[in-house]
Every structure is written in C-alpha cells, then in structure tokens.
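Inputs:
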Amino acid sequence: MTTFSNVSLFVQCLVDNFYPQVGDAMVEIFRRLDLKVDVPLAQTCCGQPAFNAGYRKTARKAARHFIDTFASAEVIVCPSGSCVDMVRHHYPDLFADDPVWQARATQVAQKTFELTEFLVDVLGVINLEARFDGRVTYHDSCHLTRHLGVARQPRALIQAVRGTELIEMADSDRCCGFGGTFAVKYADISTGMLAEKVANILATEAEVVIGCDLSCLLHIQGMLSRKKLPVRAMHIAELLVQK
Amino acid sequence: MTANREAFMARVRTALSAPTSHGRGAIAYAELAPLAVAKRSDAPLELLAENAAALNIQLQLAADPAAAAALIRRIAVETEAEWAQQKALVRWDDALLNELDLETALADTGLPLYRAPLAAPVDTVARDRFHRQLRSAVIGITSADYCVADTATLVLRNRPGQPGAVSLVPSVHVAVVRESQVLVDFVSLYAELAQERRRDREALTGRMTFISGPSKTGDIELVIVHGAHGPRALHLIVLRDPSA
Amino acid sequence: MSAIRTEAYCQAAREGMADPVLQKALSGFQHRVAPATAQRYRRHPEGPQVRQMAHAIRMHAVEHLDTLLPRLADGILARGGQVYFAADAQAAVAYGLAVARRRGVRQVVKGKSMVTEEIGLNEAFQDAGIAVVETDLGEYILQLAGETPSHIIAPAIHKTRKEVGRLFAEKLGIPYSEDPPTLTQAARAALRTQFLSADMGVSGCNLACAETGHITTVSNEGNIRMSTTLPKVHIAFMGMERVVARLADHALLFRLLSNAAAAQKMAGYISYIGGPRADFQADGPEEFHLVIVDNGRSRILADPEFREILCCIRCAACLNVCPVYGKIGGHAYGYAYSGPVGAVVTALLVGLDRAKHLFFGETLCGACKEACPVEIDLPRLLLALRHRWAEGRADDLFRGGGDRLEALVMRLWGELARRPNLYQGARHLAVAGQQMLPAEEGRITRLPPPLHGWTQARDLPRLARRRFVQRWAAEQARGEGGR
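Outputs:
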C-alpha cells in the first residue's frame, strides 16, 4: 500500500455545483482512511466541455489554471472518470507544441486518479466498512471504463458494502447518451439512448443505480425523476459512506 | 494513361511528405512479432472436423481413392437437380481427381460427368462447351491446394484443367484433398504460400480463391440461409495418407 | 458523386428512432454481432495486441502508398490487366463508362462496394442506359425497393421478412412468402439469370496486395465471385488506401476482418484476382480493369491528424457497437458511409460544414475504438474534426466555418474557468436566476433555449446554494477558528 500524507481533491464541476454532498462523502472516506484532505479553493473546471466542443484554446486556458492550482499537490483525486481522462490523456496532447507546459501537464497527469481506482489500485482499499441495505445496479461510464480501464474497482468496492446486493444490468457499459453538449444539441438521440439505459436499469429491479461519474448520474436521474420512477441515482462515494 | 498515373502518384508523394505522429500505434510494422500458431496444431483433422461442422461443411474421410469415389457417387445419386432436368457433374482435370477414376465409379448411374478443358490455350469452342456444361451441372468436383483446419478453408488456384467456376456455379461443390494438404491455420497457409512464391513468383496465379463453407447469406432478418448464389452445399472429402 | 444528405441528420435521425421495425432490427443486430465479434478478438493466439498489430500493418501500408500502388499496378499490368488511376469520382465513373461503351455493355452485375456508392457509379451507368443489378442479396432487396443501404455489411437490416416477401411477390412475381430460405431461393434464381447473361461485372476491392499484384474480394454469398468470373469484362474499383504491402499481412487482416464484419472466424469466400483470364483458363473475364480512386483521399493522407482514418478496412464493426448508430440507423448519416467511421470519412470527403452534425452528433463513448479491428482511434478523429470546425487555421486542408456565437460563449467561459472569483460571481447570478425557472419538487422542469433540449424528457437539479468548495472553505475557517 502506497502512503500519502495529503490527498488533494478535484471535486469536478457537477459535484461542486450540484451535488456538494458527494464532495462531503469523499472527504469522509479519506478521513476514515486517516488521510489528510486538501481542497484547493481556486479549482474550477478541467476544460473538458470546451475541449470536446472543439475549442482547444479555451480548453488550454482552463488546463493551465488547473495545472497551476494543482501543481504542488502530492496526489489529485477526482470523483469522475471523464475528468481524469481529460487530465491524464488530453492535457499532454493539448500542449504538444509547448514543451514547458507539456512537462507540467504530464507531471499533473501522472498524479491524478479517479476515486475508485485510487482506492483500490493505489491504496489497496476495498472494504470501507460501509453498510447499505438494498439492491443496487452499476452503470459503467464510458471514459472510466474504456479510456481508464476501470470497471473491476467500483464493483469490488460495491460488493464490499454490507447489505448491498449488486445486480448487473444489461449493457452496463453502453453510453447513457449524455455526451456533454450532445445531450442538449441532439436531445432526441440523447433521450433515445437514455431511455434504453433506464429500461436496463429498471429491468434489474434495483432501488439505486450507482455510478462513478456525476455527468451520467445527473443525466440518468433526470429521466428517473421526470418519469417518477422508483429508482435513484447515487454516486459511489455516497454509497461508500452509508452506515 | 501514364500521365494520369504520374499525376496521381505525384499527389500521393506530396501528401506523404508531411510526417505525422498521430495515429502511431503501440507497435511498429518493422518490429511486428511473427504471428502465433493456433492451439491444437497437433491434431489438424480433429480441428478441421470441428470447424467444418460449424460451417455446415459435410466432411468425410476416405481411406483410399476408391472409397472417395464411392462417396462422390453417393452424393451424386442423392443430390437433387436444380437448374436442369438432367443431373450432370463437372470436374477438374487434375492428377488427384484422375486417381479417383470417377468415370468408372459413376458409370452405372448414367449421370454425365464432364471434364474441364485441360489443353491450353482453351479455344472458343472448348470454352463455350465448358460453359454450357457448367450451367447444367448440379455438382462441381474439385481438388484443392490446401485445406486449413482452423477455419475449414479450401485454397483453390486456377491452372490448366482447374477453372474456379467449377467450385461456384453448380448447386453443390465437392472438394477432395489429401490429408497431407491439411494445414493448421491461416498463418501456416501464408507461410506455405510465401515459400511457394520464393520458388515461383507467380505461384498464386492470377486467381486464387479461399472457400470456407457453402454459399450463405443472413440478409433477411439475419436468418442464415445456404445457397445464396454459390453452392448450397459443400462436401469435403479428405483422402487419408497411406501411412495413417 | 452520390447524393449528399448529411445536413438532414437530425430529421433523419428522428425518423429512424420513430421506426419501430428499425429499432428492433438495430438492437437485435447489435446485440447479436457485437459480443460475438469481441469474443472472436479474444481468441487469437497472438493475444490482446492482435488489433495493434493490424494497426501497424495498415498504417505502414498507408504511409507507403507511394511505393505500394505502383507495385500493385505493375503486377496487374504484367498479367495483362489494365489499371486506371482516377483523381476523382468523375474520372473514375467516366473510365468505367468508357470501358462499358467500348464493349457495348448493356447489363452489369455488381458486387457490393462502398467506393462505387461513393462515386455514384450506378446512377451514372443507369443514366447511360446500362442496367446495373446489385447482386448482394441485401443490396438487391434495396434496389428492388428503390432504397439505399443502411449498414455497410448488412445493408437491408431495416427490412423485415414480411416487407421482403411483399416486395418479391410484386417485383419477381413469386407467390407471397415470408420464409427466408424461400425468398433467398427466389433471388438466387432471378440473379442466376443475370449472372449468366451480364456483359460486365463490377466489384470493389477489400485489401489489395502490392507484393503479389492482386486485389481481393470478400463475400459470403458468392455473388462477387459470380460477378467477377462469368461476365467477359470485370472492372474493380478500389479506394487508393485499400492495399497492404506483403502477402503475409493478409494472414492477420483477413482473420480480423471476418471477425469484425460478421463475427465469423473466416469469411466464406476470399478471392485473389490479379488480371484477366490466362489463355489456359476456361473461365474468367477477357478483360480486367482496376480503377484506383483518389477522390479526396490524398488530401486526407496529407493531413497529419486525419491520415489514420485511411487504415479503415470498411468492416462496419464500429457501427455494430455504436449506441448512436444503434438508435438512428444508417440512413441518418446521409451518405455512403455511416456510423462512427462515416462520421469521420464523410466529413473529410464532403466537407466539415456539410457534415458537422455527423461528428458533433456522437457522444465520444469510445466503443468504436474498442471494436475496430485495426484499432483506429475514432474518438481522437472526431475530436480533431470538432477542433478543425471550431478553430481551424486558414491553411488547414480541412476546416469548418465554426459558430461565432458559440465561440464567444466559449471564450467567456474560458475566462471564468481561469478566474475563480469571476467563476464564483457568475455562479451567484445563476443561482439567483434559476429561481425563475419552472420546477417541481425542487427540480427544474423547463430550461430556456438554447438549453431546452435537456428538459424535453429530463429534469435538472437546481444548483446547490453553495458550492462544495465554498462550504469547504467556510468549514476550514470555522475549524481553524474553533481550534
């Protein structure tokens, strides 16, 4: 087990703005593990929305700010596979023609981890002594599972929660249709994809759908509440602090 | 014609003058490891049987040429005509098939057995006659250069007396190969072909065909149907080596 | 050039999603083929790097087209074949027509070929009074129905057996049947007559081999063998990138192509064709022509970011896993190429502005990259297209017009992202503003344009009163004060 004295949280925009309780849960997890938590107050967004929309100049601005904000961090942990993919895989490319910034970007990229991969692969922690009585299913978010290769880790963490029954849904790694601005610009297609995801969730008869990316969960919850369906979306960090 | 080729290739050369690091994979072409050989290379006939069954190839083993001829006779009797009233057979004219002496084996059935023209060059008369025979034939009989066990693939090349159409136009294709012609997998097939090419640059001939199973389609609701355009059935007869 | 309807993406997508038959067919097809393909990939003795090896083979070929194409051409010329290098669609079609006219061709049988769809060959032949029959069963069904393919490998997946039954009853005069074997047999009989009487066969080319000087064709039905064996003239069209260097390269690529296209271990028929029939041959065409088509490919080759797409072997594996394709179907893409590869190739062929919906209307989920037998980084290419569209430099070969309003919004957003105080301030405004939006049980049910798409079928939580970061700061301050 690797030891760290200080974990810096990059809480990600959606957690920061819509679901601060997920940030609280992360803090709680690290406290339980006796790790000191730091939240750099200057953090904003990693720049992925601009990058994905093709605006790399803007993405570079956000990336420089991120790199400055987290340069001195020992390790950076983020509750989103998508943002970690941005930092880890796209930051170094974003500064391909700027060796100084590319070096800084690479340095930050190497110490940025998604929450579940950090817990399981870096810290070697699976059981957080959580208890949650209920049936849950797990949604594999695209960038987490395909670009970071993280699928086993969240499942191990879920299965270690006492009282929780994990029921796999069909096509758990099929995109929910969020896709950033896609969800707004191509709302019909996005909604069609989401309806399929929701049907797969319902078929498990789970009460909760767990995920590691708030973007997907916000999207899925959007339809669950609109249709008043008896399932709720929950970030894995929240599950891991249930008592 | 030459001018347009030159202009075309000049564009390609210009385009390639811009180097790129994008799209580089993890492995370089120059450092490609040799392809791996399929598992179970020790029992090629078993492997062939398994894959032939999966492709709906009717595989039969024959101890000697007479047994092979008897198998073909039975297939000929049992196969129903499709395009012509009269059932007829057409076969390659090559050493292996000649060894079977199908003419004798089929004599009592009264079924016509045509041979593809062997004498080169094939003149218009011979070609027209062959085409008429081909259209009317219900069974086409060929040998093959190789048979690949891992994929149940037959490898046919066009040589005098061996027109590829015999394996295509008749309703049913019967292929005969010797056990010694059975290779394990595609990697060994390509290794053999490369070796042949070292001896003869034109070893592939102008037309080489790999056949893995009878003609099939899934274009209507993904239901697999055999006999889309080519043969609706493929019989493969493996002639055991005398030592076996 | 075939008709370009890429601008109608959103409308066509809606139509696709509203078609219950298509929805069922797409879902059934994807669920059947995609997992089987993935399983096939896992079984190669070369191990998990097998697709990377294939990538290396294809990228090497693409980067050596300057030597490979002449070698291929010379091999074919040496066997008495003819090779034409076509700069664009018009030149390729004109060459085909010239051959047909010289030979007095009235009837053509054709094997499925993407590049001939791209160059609009059928339309040009038909305009010239030459009948062209598509002989792939799926394509034949669509030709009879007057429709276009919706999938590269399974062109008629959107047709039910009942529809085919009615179509065949009407067009072929057979008694109505919805039994696939009966319907296949009817097509077999109808097309056999065509094969035996056609004056010319047209095919594409899957992967040519420069070393030996052969093109190859791949099919399961045998229609391409028929089309290239029986008529007196065979003319093959290939995109200039569809060649590999060595014969041995095929040992890997044909396995992967078969896995990718139809989850097969090996495709039913693979034919190497290196020229017209030799004088000892009793079958085969008298004339063989190979038309090597550029039609915009050298521009793609010249662009460092997009060159990789030329590795594509047109297997359609990316269609079979794409969740967007799985919803909207192939017609929505408005051109010969559909799915993720279509989103990239079409944009590069018809222009970024005309095809922008194709590369923006994707979620970057990455399933395509995992399914690609030659591991093309399709998400990278989609991102690069978006970048060129939004910020392309004037000297870029491929660029788009962008959107000035969106660019302005992005610039402002970029300023917020790097100025935490400004970010905080903007958020205050948003928190205040959201009170005016209709909500139910604390969740926003209707957003104003341009965000209204979200709330069509989804609601949105309200922004938390305070950001996590603010709460944390406050907590720290309290904690330190109390200590």
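Remarks. Chain B has a mean pLDDT of 94. Chain B has one domain: 44-239.
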